[in-house]
Amino acid sequence: MSINQTLENLRGSYRNASFDISDANSRPDIQFDSWFKDAVAAECDEPNAFVLSTVLNGQPRARVVLLKGIHNENFAFYTNYNSAKGAELANNSHVAMTFLWLPLQRQIRIEGTLQKIDSAFSDEYFQKRPRGNQIGAIASPQSQKVASRHELEKLFQDADKKYSNEVEIKRPEHWGGYTITPTYFEFWQGRENRMHDRIIYEKNSQGWHLSRLAP
Ligand SMILES: Cc1cc2nc3c(=O)[nH]c(=O)nc-3n(C[C@H](O)[C@H](O)[C@H](O)COP(=O)(O)O)c2cc1C
Known about the structure:
With 215 residues, the protein is of the alpha+beta class.
């Protein structure tokens, strides 16, 4: 069967649950917390993974990263500040996040602006990472071209050797976190006949305003 035939035949139906404004918490971070807990309880793979979308000179770019904390309603993730996304974020701090929890037939979209996290958070989180991940963060020039897998492994081995006598590895300056301050949320619950529920939160001077969107 060709991929296009397969694609034509793929047709899921969504009928697990519903979501109405009357079910939604007035605070979107609390609503997020509730759906995130459901995703963990449903044993969704990597429930903290989300697509991070950025824009560079009008060109959208996207990749998956992991949510690592929510501090004062701000969403934190960690990466290499010198990566492609790091350069994009230095240029344009407007981002979008997309969480997808298929077993629950749910999607959450968030838009907001981003800033670098306090270095103390990055230091603390770096120390919690397994040693191999710490070495990897030091060794990998994320998003740069490398000649071969061999060259990459050599970078890792060299860094591993360099730090072999260090009990605690210091966070490199090029690695750390960002926090996203949301201005918009959409909670999407799949429903029958493509008549899905979409409840949005928009931030204004009074706080959060909730509405329903057509699917
Ligand atoms: C499930 C999953 C989780 C990931 N988590 C992270 C992460 O937390 N931080 C990160 O820098 N990259 C993470 N990545 C890798 C990114 O998707 C991406 O390849 C990398 O950050 C380079 O992106 P860039 O070249 O756009 O900067 C993850 C990828 C997957 C598939």
